[in-house]
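Complex 287.
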Amino acid sequence: MNPPNSDSLFTITPGAGDLPKLTLVAPDGAQAEIYLHGAHVTSWIPAGGQERLFLSRASRFRADAPIRGGIPIVFPQFAMLGSLPQHGFVRVMPWEFVEVKKAGTGASAIFRLRDTKESRALWANAFLAELTLAIDGNQLAVTLAILNTGTEPFAFTAAFHTYLAVTDLAATVVETLTGVRYLDKAAGGIENRQTSPQMGFSGEVDQVYFDAPAELHLIEPNRTTRIRSEGFPDAVLWNPAAVKCAAVSDLVPDDYQRFVCVEAGVIGTPINLAPGTRWQGTQTLLA
Ligand code: BG6
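Predicted structure with 6-O-phosphono-beta-D-glucopyranose bound:
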């Protein structure tokens, strides 16, 4: 049997809300789905495995709203750390599909977004953003690259706001954050240092860890997901718990039991990008 060529690795079909969705299938059977709206990964099934990303059943799939779940791209502003809308604007913009490539047993897809009249009305800078999604065996890697295509420097914060599916939240912990300084947004924005070797989710968690280790572990009763980052010095843990979850219109009230966000971010010290220069960061999930 001939190995599949890049033409047979993907399809682009109308997804929810008729928004275009690319389905990527690697030669080894690993699969992912990504909407051009926000270059938003909504599904990842490792080779021979099960769905590992949470996607809300109540998500809006509309051009003017972010998708709830999967891997939202946060750029050029994390949360409300500036005057832009929460988490910036690229998660609600239509990205361009560039290409799909086969790489050994895996496959990758590239998407691009340039500044537009709408983005410049919010943020005056000229940029090219590129998202590379790569799947291979038990791994998914997302890389965000930002090129300053203008004549002035600009500063930004960014993140992959990754929603990992969990089946037993009360028995789920994150490890390797011991001793790391964090901002506790759920406790009103106080700074703290993680003392526990295992961070659990018994209530609302909204914590920004600065200079976090390059590998975190999401440990569930029957599986562990390793989460690596390069170029993103910070990490965010988010779970809204029952009360806040019920107030989020695009989450089902008990959805907080189905995910933990483990985000790779550059938040504490913004990136300053000179004209003509490029920055990139990667988050890799290992099932
Ligand atoms: C997290 C923030 O990264 O994202 C939280 O730390 C925020 O404060 C959460 O509530 C979800 O944001 P949004 O805009 O996708 O609802």
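Residues 66, 79, 86-87, 161, 185, 206, 236, 238, 263 surround 6-O-phosphono-beta-D-glucopyranose (CB under 6 Å).
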